[in-house]
Amino acid sequence: VQLVESGGGSVQPGGSLTLSCAASGFTFSTAAMTWVRQAPGQGLEWVSSIGSWDAGSISRTRLYADSVKGRFTISRDNSKNMLYLQMNSLNVEDTAVYYCNVVYMTTSYWGQGTQVTVSS
After folding, report:
1. Any idea of the CA torsion for 52, 56, 65, 92, to the nearest 10 degrees?
2. Residue 13: helix, strand or coil by DSSP?
3. pLDDT averaged over the chain?
């Protein structure tokens, strides 16, 4: 299993970024996926999760932490084995390393993370 995040960077408050996570080594379409972040000097914070693809399902379960609800949007492209996190209205409290995570066959896998810095 391999997860590779990208798309981080430095933005001003109010700005936007889209993070990507390229997944391989497992059946992506059947796995729920999660974004987790770690701010400087802080512990891991769950950000958002998206359920796996269900045949015939119109919508897919998406969950968000209260701190990002209404500002962040999680999505996935099963044809490309890609996970995304669209982040709008960023504020300094969003500064963190963002990680892609999957639990597959009872093992939790993490990417290397991508740094997001929000500052004026």
Report:
1. 90
2. coil
3. 93
DSSP β-ladder status, 62-64 and 33-38: unpaired
Q: Which residue has the tokens 């963002």?
A: 98
Residues 48-63: pLDDT tens digits? 999 886 544 545 689 9
Distance CA 120, CA 114 (A): 20
d(CA 11, CA 115): 11
Q: Is the pLDDT of residue 24 over 70?
A: yes
Cβ-count burial 16-25 (b if 16+ within 10 Å, e if not): ebebbbbbee
Question: In the structure encoding, which two tokens stand for residue 64, read together?
Answer: 């968000």
Instruction: Say if residues 97 and 37 touch (Cβ distance below 8 Å).
Output: yes
What does DSSP assign to residue 94?
Answer: G
List pLDDT tens digits, range 3-17. Answer: 999 999 999 999 999
Degrees (nearest 5) of the Cα angle 20, 39, 112?
40
